[in-house]
Amino acid sequence: MLNFKRVSKSSIGATGLLGVIASMAFAEETRVTFPENLDELTHYTTVRRGEVTEHIKTTDEAIAAIKAGEPIPFGTHFVLEDYREGEIYRYFVMQKGEDWGLDYDEDRRTGDWQFQWYWGDRSINMDENTARCQGCHESQESSEYLYTGYRIPHFEGTPID
Ligand code: HEC
Fold it and tell me: At 24, is the pLDDT very low, low, confident or very high (cuts 50, 70, 90)?
């Protein structure tokens, strides 16, 4: 089960209890926050899929940890910036936090990582159920649930294309 402690008082006030129940049923609150330091994250690889160009970024600390074969520190963000025709379309964000995995049943859990989909204006896509993100990324358990983490040991400052 998700931990709903984070539903703020103001959102309860604004929408009433029914609104909160509705958002629990249909929307996906997770613990992920949009990275405040997006511009400071390091772009380590680019993935191109037809019209879509994905810039994938994380912190220098996470890059150093992976290169050293150590666990990725709590608080780390991984961001996939999805560009279409040169414009940002959406951001896919993964973030790791201490014991965040405990918010979910074991069959859904992806270590201590949680997921979120933000639109280009950084608003959350409230139609997305992030269980779908986890369902795919769980196959990457052996590499901290990352698909492109294997590229990081080869990263020397120029994004790997
Ligand atoms: C169908 C499988 C699938 C689903 C569903 C999926 N992903 Fe991914 N994700 C990938 C793949 C594959 C990559 C590697 C980049 C690529 O190939 O486009 C990736 C890469 C990422 C990355 C960059 C770090 C990494 O793992 O390499 C982030 C962040 C990410 N996804 C977040 C999300 C979020 C958030 C969602 C849900 C909104 C999501 N993903 C849903 C397959 C998936």
Answer: very low
Distance CA(65)–CA(85), nearest Å, equals 34
Report how far residue 27's alpha carbon sits from residue 127's, in angstroms, rounded to the nearest whole number: 6
The residue whose two tokens read 């698909």 is 147
Do 57 and 39 contact (CB within 8 A), yes or no?
no
From the CA of 154, how far away is ligand 1's center (Å)? 20
User: Alpha-carbon distance 78 to 59, whole Å?
Assistant: 8
Question: pLDDT: is 21 or 84 the higher one?
Answer: 84
| Ligand 1 proximal residues by C-beta, below 6 Å | 47, 49, 54, 56, 78-80, 92-94, 115-117, 128, 130, 132-133, 136-137, 146-148
pLDDT: which is higher, 55 or 20:
55
Q: Are 51 and 84 in contact (CB under 8 A)?
A: yes
